[in-house]
Amino acid sequence: MVIVVSITAVASFIIPNMEMSAGIRLLRFPMMITASLFGVIGIMVGMAVIIIHILSMESLGVPYGSPFSPSFASDLKDILVRLPWKLMKKRPLSLNLKQENRQRDIEETEEDK
Question: Which domain of life is it from (predicted)?
Answer without folding.
Answer: Bacteria
